[in-house]
Design brief:
By secondary structure, the protein is of the alpha/beta class. Helices cover 23% and strands 28% of the residues.
């Protein structure tokens, strides 16, 4: 039976526990060093505590050690891997293949998406290196996923939600070139979220001061079943810098979606234990987003850019009209000639979203900038902002802070319980109580006691059944309680003592039961490459040796080592700016496109764009 994993980000220990509580089957978090998000590192002590908490629910902890490494960092990284192994981490994500040439622990290795895992040939190479799992490039479509699944035995993980890099992951060097901060070293300056001009070969500005490389966020909620059928076993949410409220909302949403799908798949089940009950209704529109795109998963190319702003825009809720410094809100209506419109959960009786005092609203102003404001007061359809707004007549209005929803998320929003069966038995010298959980972990407590005869045996049995069923603020809930014989009177304090001991022993038993087993990796070199160019991101001698083992005799170091950008692609993108602007040359109905070459200009930097229409790719050239 295949196990389907919902994998959530954990900025820190609190976010990790929150994700587990809300139904995550696994979490991924950063270690103290060498993570692709420098601002999201965690101490070994916190990781160890998160491991114990996750294993209690049969969930897993993956740790990111996924930056490129220099020669003088390899030993420190190797020691870090052993420390993570010692505390029971289930898997480590790496980008630098040089680690494979070192004495590293027998733990599961996942090839980070920064390894540029975009094709069947690449995944087959990773499998020969001994990786347990590959995190596929976000650009990989269902057809390619299915092809990879049929021709490899490696586990496949794919992103389903969150922020998008415009470039193939691991192939972006523009941040290091422009800001001295390398995305492959965990310090991306997010150059793709800045403003650019687009110029033609003669220097004429075609588009001025827009976020031309900034993408919407990913949401593949409508493609989960197709991804399962294609061979994805782990569904990954981006966001290792996101808040607990983000984790709560997104985890709950995808937990419910996957559970609904898995209910119709007898051959598949969720990858961890327990049932999560939610005390709110998740809504992805109310969590940080730049609007959503499925991003190539169905093989189709649709508009995906967010030219006006790289910031959270939230949910569309209507229009805002300005008249003599007064502001009038007109909500979206259901129906209409364009079909049904998405609306908020908080609604008027006619289906219109409610704007509340304290909500954060925003719009694109006359300068093509996102302008936001808090609502000070609402009277009917009139809004009173906390500040004076720029001049406009009528604009589309969005809500990116829903105060009522955030208030709900600040409270208790979920609980997760593991089912247990309890057997009570009377012995000659006392009692024995056994607790068996849904994963067949079994513990017993035997206690000698002076057994007093019960005057009303049936009533005592029912009282005992009720007492044993009350497991309170523990990870467990009683599913079945068997009491074959109950002839003795039991005091409530004694029963509570038995339950406490049982719970303690079962927690320990589950933590041991889900401790990861050692992984035997097979490194199978064969002649696959004649050369290894700069896009292989080789920054140390051990990494170079890997490619030499696989046949490469012409080896070039990566730009994170050489910084030799001249004439090289500093971005390689499935995203195409010509398509976004309506100039795609593969679409006959489009008007004549501008003459190549086109240039992106920002500050003192000018980048030539190359378009490979055969591969449907765009390169940003230094």
């Amino acid at each position: 039976m295949s196990r389907i994993e919902l994998l959530l980000p954990a900025k820190d220990l609190a976010c990790g526990k929150t994700a587990i509580n809300h139904g995550a089957d696994a979490v991924y978090t950063g270690a103290s060093a060498f993570g692709a998000r420098q601002a999201a590192g965690n101490s070994l002590r916190d990781i160890a505590e998160l491991v114990d908490y996750a294993h209690l629910y049969g969930a897993k902890v993956h740790v990111t050690v996924n930056t490129l490494l220099y020669d003088n960092e390899l030993e420190e990284a190797r020691k870090l891997l052993w420390s993570l192994y010692d505390v029971g981490v289930d898997a480590v994500l790496i980008q630098d293949l040089g680690l494979l040439k070192l004495d590293i622990p027998p733990m599961a290795l996942h090839a980070s998406t920064q390894c540029h895992n975009h094709s069947l040939e690449r995944i087959q190479f990773l499998e020969k290196l001994g990786f347990t799992r590959a995190v596929l490039a976000r650009e990989t479509d269902l057809e390619t996923i299915q092809d990879i699944h049929k021709q490899t035995d490696i586990e496949l993980e794919a992103f389903v939600h969150g922020a998008l890099c415009v470039c193939y992951s691991g192939q972006c060097y523009i941040s290091r070139m422009m800001a001295g901060r390398s995305g492959n070293r965990g310090a991306c300056a997010q150059i793709c979220r800045t403003r650019f001009d687009l110029q033609d070969a003669k220097g004429k500005t075609l588009v001025c001061n827009k976020h031309l490389l900034s993408l919407k966020d990913m949401c593949r909620a409508d493609f989960l079943e197709g991804m399962i059928n294609a061979g994805i076993m782990s569904f990954k949410v981006e966001g290792r810098l996101k808040s607990e409220s983000y984790v709560k909302n997104v985890t709950a949403f995808y937990r419910q979606q996957l559970d609904s799908i898995l209910g119709g798949y007898p051959e598949a089940r969720r990858a961890s234990s327990g049932v999560t009950r939610f005390f709110f209704t998740p809504d992805l529109r109310k969590t940080f987003n730049r609007e959503y795109t499925p991003y190539f998963i169905d093989g189709k190319r649709t508009p995906m850019a967010s030219f006006d702003t790289p910031k959270a825009i939230g949910e569309p809720i209507g229009t805002l009209t300005q008249t003599n410094s007064q502001y009038f809100y007109t909500p979206l209506c259901r129906g209409g000639s364009e079909g049904a419109r998405h609306v908020s959960q908080a609604q008027h009786s006619d289906g219109h979203p409610i704007v509340s005092n304290g909500d954060g609203l925003c719009f694109i102003n006359a300068d093509s900038e996102l302008e936001g404001f808090l609502v000070n007061k609402v009277e009917g359809n009139r809004l009173f902002p906390q500040k004076e707004l720029s001049k406009f007549t009528e604009v589309a209005l969005y809500r990116n802070i829903d105060k009522q929803f955030e208030k709900i998320l600040s409270g208790k929003t979920a609980e997760r319980k593991i089912a247990v069966d309890i057997l009570y038995e009377e012995l000659d010298y006392g009692v024995r109580v056994t607790m068996v959980d849904e994963d067949c972990c079994s513990v017993s407590v035997e206690e000698a006691a002076a057994m007093e005869p019960a005057q009303q045996r049936e009533k005592m049995a029912e009282t005992l059944r009720t007492a044993l069923s009350k497991l309170g603020n523990t990870p467990f809930e009683a599913r079945d309680i068997k009491i074959p014989v109950c002839t003795s009177f039991l005091r409530s304090g004694f029963v509570n003592y038995l339950k406490t001991k049982l719970v303690e022993k079962l927690v320990e038993a589950r933590t041991r039961h889900f401790h990861p087993m050692d992984v035997s990796r097979e490194y199978r070199p064969e002649k696959l490459f004649a050369q290894a160019g700069y896009l292989r991101n080789i920054t140390n001698e051990a990494h170079r040796a890997v490619y030499e083992d696989f046949g490469a005799v012409d080896v070039e170091y990566g730009l994170d080592k050489t910084e030799d950008y001249a004439g090289k692609a500093v971005m390689t993108c499935k995203y195409c700016l010509r398509y976004e602007l309506g100039w795609c040359r593969r679409r006959a109905e489009n008007p004549k496109t501008p003459v190549d070459p086109l240039f992106l200009v920002s500050g003192g930097h000018r980048f030539r764009l190359e378009f490979d229409c055969g591969k449907c790719e765009m390169k940003v050239m230094a």
